[in-house]
Amino acid sequence: MIMKFLPTILCLTLVSTLAVAVGVARGQPAGSIVGWGPDVVVGQGDLKHLVAVAAGGSHSLGVKSDGTVVAWGRNYPGHPGQCNVPTPNTGFVAVAGGAQHTLALKTDGSIVTWGDNSSGLGTVPAPNTGFTAVAGGAWHSLGLKANGAIVAWGDNTYGQRNVPGTNGGFAAVASGAWHSLGVKSGAVVAWGRNDFGQCTVPGPNTGFVAVAGGDRHSLGLKADGSIVAWGSNASGQCTVPAPNTGFAAIAAGGDHSLGLKDDGTIVAWGSNSSGQSSVPTPNESFVALASGNDHSLGLKADGTVVMWGSNRHGQCNVLPSNTGFVQIAGGEMHKLGLKADGTVVAWGENASGQCTVPAPNTGFVSVAGGAGHSLGLKGDGTVIAWGENFLGQGNVPAPNANFVAIAAGGWHSLGVKSDGTAVAWGLNEHGQCNVPAPNANFVAVAAGGDYDETLGLLAGHSLGLKADGTVVAWGWNDFGQCDVPQPNAGFVAVAAGTHHSLGLKSDGTIVGWGQCIVGECNVPAPNAGFVAVAAGREYSLGLKSDGTVVAWGRNDFGQCTVPAPDTGFVAIAAAGISSLAIKGAVVTAVDERERRAPLGVSPVIRALAPNPSGTSTTVLFETPVSGSLMLDVYDVRGRLLRAVALGNRTPGLHRTLWDGQDANGRGVPAGMYFLRLRGATTESRPVKVVVMH
């Protein structure tokens, strides 16, 4: 039998930093990461069929063949931010980026701008018609008209808007950070800031066909395929590598330069502090290029984009590819993604090595991120820690074995062992590492952290979910984040923010407690149908069973503005003030027998605890009607390993135990499995469980 099913919500009772991914699942949802707030990550499907690319300071842009613009990377607050493309997103032919703003050219010759609007950046001078090209400086913008005139707006501190001489006859335009460039009759005209000679064009000033501007340097492409560079050369950005021939296009970053050759290869030189001058292999088939402050883009002939350099704000999206993710986690300024093959991808701030995953990068089943450290749980039950460790948050206590769940707070770490005990290490100023007695029957943990202004100390609090559905909280409690509301029962997942806590109940409702100054504990109506929760810095996320994400609380960076279409999500995480989610993709099947029973008729698996499991896992399920049920266990190839008779069950919530064995009474090997409830005429959707030994 060919076996298949549709992807849906990831079911893990693991808690990552400030986040939980728990809920109903139809299978293993390996997909792409989408991010919003101050750092935008887009799905891999959005980075296909591109016909043009551009880069701002720390954000990236692309124009698709259908005329839409896609933007990702840094997204400073604005109305909208520089990565929030305004509607209607149609009819675009070119795009350009500034430090914190974006401008795009439409087929009708008009320009649309978005992002920062200081100095009038968002106000295109009238008449907004007849434009053929656009360019963005740090805080100013340029547009080239069909009649050869240049229109400039925005900041003019250095005269970068004051086009010299007769404003006409220009064939190309470009912007540096604080200076402007144009090509007229083969000569380069430059104006604006000139403290490093970036506006002093070397002779002979003839034969130019294109220009590009960096922070303090300029590039000019000649008709003979050679490049001329001038201005600051502190990082070698003006030293064009030999042979200086055969170039077809140029781009200038903050302190680095790029040149595209006729043969489709890219040459990069200058600063390489973030790898922005290290072109990935295979270096071939490129047709266009762009440079940000310290990152680079190359457009391939097949319409895909290659990105390299700094990825602190996701401007290079998720490297090496935004596919195959099954779990996400976020620290204060860094993010982690777990792939279906057991590898971890990390991006963002790396000052303490929190994004440098230790070798061998294999065999991981869960990840968590703290303020400056990262944790990874391996399939063999060991925990790997990397990054910041000045308070011992990276020193996993011995014996480092038999862990089944992890969490990372600001500066402390938590783990659950297969025997149900919780282990804590790192910062303990507020007792966040003192697990309350009795230390038993834990199935999941969560950890928060921030600065205690009252005592002038780093702080944190911890949450533990017990097998009986109660929540235990300890540590910093200045805002009531450890005062679990009554009734303390029926919880299936927990999440810890900086000053507040969240609990997901088996009935699909979310309970919030602690600080609520911006509504982070006020769950929007209808408070129903939730399958996962995540808590960040003064905001909250909830994932519904229909694949939609609900966000509430602080929204000054757009962290609660879920990008459209709000559908198809399978996992969520909150990373400081950034939001992350995984969009599902079709995956390996478990069962083809889709009876498509009407909603409300089929049984539903509500949660698994613990998951990953050492030897056994408790299955919390709900059935709407009376009847006999079976619990089926499948491997990742869709083979039925065991069918457990559960007997007749009445309507309501029930618990049962899968002991980790197959039909022959043998313990299954460590790995990934799927559980499904089956009745006489209905069945639930499969739920993933990870078994570790």
* Helix proportion range: under 10%
Percentage beta strand: 35-45%
How large, in whole angstroms, is the Cα Rg? Answer: 27 Å
Q: What overall form do the CA principal axes indicate?
A: elongated
Mean pLDDT: 88
Distance between the termini: 31 Å
Record the strand order, biggest sheet: 4-7-6-5
Topology, number of strands:
52
- The assigned structural class equals mainly beta
| Poorly predicted runs of 5 or more residues | 1-29, 585-599
Largest sheet: 4 strands, antiparallel
Count of runs of 4 or more consecutive helical residues:
0
Provide keyphrases for this structure:
693 residues; mainly beta; 4-stranded antiparallel beta sheet
What does this molecule look like?
With 693 residues, this protein is mostly beta strands. The chain has no helices and 52 strands. The strands form 17 sheets. It has a 4-stranded antiparallel sheet with strand order 4-7-6-5, with no helix packed on it. A 4-stranded antiparallel sheet has the order 49-48-51-52, with no helix packed on it. Strand 18 and strand 19 form a beta hairpin.
Topology (elements, then pairings):
Elements: E1 14-16, E2 19-21, E3 32-36, E4 39-40, E5 50-55, E6 59-64, E7 69-74, E8 92-97, E9 101-106, E10 111-115, E11 131-136, E12 140-145, E13 150-154, E14 170-175, E15 179-184, E16 187-192, E17 208-213, E18 217-222, E19 227-231, E20 247-252, E21 256-261, E22 266-270, E23 286-291, E24 295-300, E25 305-309, E26 325-330, E27 334-339, E28 344-348, E29 364-369, E30 373-378, E31 383-387, E32 403-408, E33 412-417, E34 422-426, E35 442-452, E36 457-466, E37 471-475, E38 491-496, E39 500-505, E40 510-514, E41 530-535, E42 539-544, E43 549-553, E44 569-575, E45 578-583, E46 604-609, E47 617-623, E48 627-635, E49 640-649, E50 652-658, E51 671-678, E52 687-691
Antiparallel strand pairs: 1-2, 3-45, 4-7, 5-6, 6-7, 8-9, 9-10, 11-12, 12-13, 14-15, 15-16, 17-18, 18-19, 20-21, 21-22, 23-24, 24-25, 26-27, 27-28, 29-30, 30-31, 32-33, 33-34, 35-36, 36-37, 38-39, 39-40, 41-42, 42-43, 44-45, 46-47, 47-50, 48-49, 48-51, 51-52
